[in-house]
Known about the structure:
The chain is mainly alpha-helical and 288 residues long.
Amino acid sequence: MSETTDRRFGHLPPVVAGLGYIFAxxxxxxxxxxxxxxxxxxxxxxxxxxxxxxPFSGSSSAALQALCRPLAEGTWSTANAALVxxxxxxxxxxxxxxxxxxxxxxxxxIAETAARKGExxxxxxxxxxxxxxxxxxFSAIAALVQIAFTRTxxxxxxxxxxxxxxSGASFIGAGVYQFSALKHACLNRCQHPFxxxxxxxxxxxxxxxxxxxxxxxxxxxxxWAMMLVMFAVGMMNIIWxxxxxxxxxxxxxxxxxxxxxxxxxxxxxxxxxxxxxTFVSHWPARAS
Length: 288
């Protein structure tokens, strides 16, 4: 620790002093916050899959049955809705917090510089809380949509061609959105957070929380379509969760549109393939 830190925390027990040193450094708080929240999301998902007996191999059949069957059979309850909502919340924490790490670390870097100059700063916890609020709201809406779709047999365990066509349309829609002006406007904000923070810097917890809300909305505008692909692949499909999470993180770390457009083409190709396979598999056999 530095001499300044020793003077500030030297009178405290070593453990408490160590914690004080960590929480006095915005970057350390930012890393800790992102790591803990995303880890909690993955841990909750792992516990759920273990409870339902689902193998950790990307197959989501058992988990999908556990989530969809009570709703599809009409035994809707607050507990079932809460379970679906909690799983969407866990997914968003697991997938979106890592993708937000560059933005949160950018804020923390500016905050550390300001702190060294003796200026008032607010912990990255407030920023992360605002960002997370947006995605938790998205989770609640997605859960309600899933419940509605399940009860109308658009989603479920055995929905046949209807579900397959819905899955294909989800991929195609997500792919087309990769080329939209709104996608690129929001992605640009996510890729370059420094000008946003420099222009809108705040020194109150409510102000920084509002910055997190705004960044969360930019991230939502950038990534909502890819998140809805989870409807198509199964919300507990951990391989797709990890893959989409990596893609969204890379998108925000790269400049330009090539990677985004390439992802869009892949999503469209997958969607078209699903639709064609559905038509072929359900095409009436010719009379012999």
